[in-house]
Design a protein that fits this description.
The protein has a single domain, classed as Aldolase class I (TIM Barrel, Alpha-Beta Barrel), CATH 3.20.20.70. It contains 15 helices and eight strands. Strands 1, 2, 3, 4, 5, 6, 7 and 8 form an eight-stranded parallel beta sheet that branches. The longest helix is centred in the N-terminal third of the chain and has 19 residues. It is globular.
Length: about 350
C-alpha cells in the first residue's frame, strides 16, 4: 500500500505515534486494517492459553511473578491438569495451545519434552511454548519433541533499559540472541514489547518497531505496561521515569497505534489483541485491536483454581471466567465485528513465505 514516506522512516513513525491529527490517525487505521485483510485475511485464530506455573527464578522489576514477591501464592499444574485444559482446546476447535509460565526449574527439559510429545501424538494442535529464557539444549529438545512455536518477548530494544528492568544472571545470552537461536532451531518465533514502561523513550519505541521488522518475527504481541504494587517499578514508578517530554505513556490509544504500525512493518505476521489491552478496556479493547491490525485472540484455558494467581499485573481481564465462558465470549466478540474464527493451526504467512 503506497505511503507518503517509507514506513521505516523514523520521522514518519514518530508522527504516527504522537500526532493528534484525526486525519493522520484515520489513515493509519485504514491502512493497517487493509494490510491485515490483504495479508492474513478476515479469519481470527484462537490460541488456547494455559498458564502452567507461576513460579519464577528471575528478579524482573515489572512482573508480579518475580522471585522476591512473597505476597503471591505459588502453583505448578501437574501434567494431567494440563492435558485436561489441552482437551478443552480441542473441544473448542482451537488450532493451537500455548503453555506459558515463569522461569520455573520444575519445568525440566524432560518433563516439557514428554508433555509436548503427549500433546502432539494425541491431538491435532500446534504447540507454542512461552517458558522464558532457556538453555539451547532445552530449546532443541523441545523442538525435537514437536513444539512448533516459541514466544519470548524482548520487552525493549534498549539494552540499558532492559538491564534495569530485567537483570540477567552472569553469562546469560541477551534475548535478541535467543530469538535468533530459536529461528535457527526451526521454531515459528514470537516476541513483543511493553508500551509505556517507566524509562521507555520515544526513540526506544521506534527502535522496537524497527526491531520487529529486522528480526522478521512470525508473531508480535504488544501491550501496555501495567503497574504491579509488589514490584520495584510499581512501588515507585516516578523514580524510573524518563524526562516528561520523552517518556512514552502506557495508554490504550498508543497500543492501537503500535499494533497498526506493527502490521504495516510486518504485514504477514500474526498479531494478537492481548489480554493487557482487554484489561485497560474491558468493553471493546480486543475488538478495536482487531480492527486496527490484529488477527489473533488468546482465550484463557487456565483452570479457575489457578487463574487469579498468575498475576503478572493486577486486575487482569477475565480471571473469573471458565474456559467455556471465555470461548463463548471470544466468539461473540469476533462475530460482532463481522469477522470469523479461523480453522486449522493458523501458522503465520510470514513463515511459509520464508520457505520454512
Amino acid at each position: 500500500m503506497p505511503v507518503d514516506a517509507p514506513i521505516t522512516d523514523r520521522s514518519w513513525l514518530h508522527q504516527r505515534l504522537t500526532s493528534d491529527d484525526p486525519a493522520i490517525l484515520d489513515d493509519l487505521w485504514q491502512r493497517a486494517d487493509a494490510c491485515r485483510r490483504a495479508e492474513v485475511g478476515d479469519a481470527i485464530h484462537l490460541r488456547g492459553l494455559i498458564e502452567i506455573s507461576n513460579h519464577c527464578t528471575r528478579h524482573c522489576a515489572y512482573c508480579g511473578l518475580h522471585v522476591a514477591n512473597r505476597a503471591i501464592q505459588r502453583y505448578c499444574m501437574d501434567d494431567d491438569e494440563i492435558m485436561a485444559s489441552v482437551a478443552q482446546a480441542v473441544d473448542f476447535g482451537y488450532g493451537t495451545v500455548v503453555l506459558q509460565a515463569g522461569e520455573d526449574p520444575r519445568l525440566t527439559k524432560d518433563r516439557i519434552s514428554a508433555l509436548v510429545e503427549r500433546i502432539k501424538t494425541t491431538t491435532p494442535l500446534a504447540v507454542t511454548l512461552s517458558l522464558g529464557e532457556r538453555h539451547e539444549e532445552e530449546l532443541r529438545a523441545w523442538r525435537s519433541a514437536g513444539a512448533d512455536r516459541y514466544l519470548l518477548r524482548f520487552e525493549t530494544s534498549n539494552p540499558d533499559l532492559f538491564e534495569r528492568i530485567h537483570p540477567r544472571p552472569p553469562g546469560a545470552p541477551d534475548r535478541l540472541t535467543l530469538l535468533r537461536s530459536l529461528r535457527a532451531l526451526g521454531y515459528e518465533v514470537g516476541s513483543g514489547v511493553m508500551i509505556g514502561i517507566p524509562g521507555q523513550r520515544w526513540d526506544d519505541l521506534i527502535d522496537d518497531l524497527l526491531t520487529f521488522r529486522d528480526l522478521d518475527l512470525d508473531m508480535i504481541g504488544v501491550g501496555p505496561w501495567l503497574s504491579h504494587p509488589e514490584t520495584a517499578i510499581g512501588a515507585d514508578p516516578a523514580a524510573w521515569m524518563a524526562p516528561a517530554d520523552q517518556q512514552v505513556p502506557n495508554t490504550e490509544d498508543l497500543v492501537y497505534r503500535v499494533i497498526a504500525l506493527t502490521r504495516l512493518l510486518c504485514p504477514a505476521a500474526n498479531i494478537p489483541a492481548t489480554s493487557a489491552l482487554a484489561t485497560i478496556n474491558t468493553v471493546n479493547g480486543r475488538e478495536q485491536g482487531l480492527q486496527r491490525g490484529a488477527n489473533i485472540l488468546m482465550p484463557n484455558l487456565t483452570p479457575i483454581t489457578y487463574r487469579a494467581l498468575y498475576q503478572i499485573y493486577p486486575g487482569k481481564a477475565c480471571i473469573d471466567e471458565t474456559g467455556t465462558q471465555c470461548n463463548a465470549c471470544m466468539r461473540g466478540r469476533i462475530g460482532r465485528i463481522g469477522r470469523h474464527v479461523g480453522s486449522g493451526r493458523g501458522d503465520a504467512p510470514n513463515r511459509s513465505r520464508r520457505g520454512a
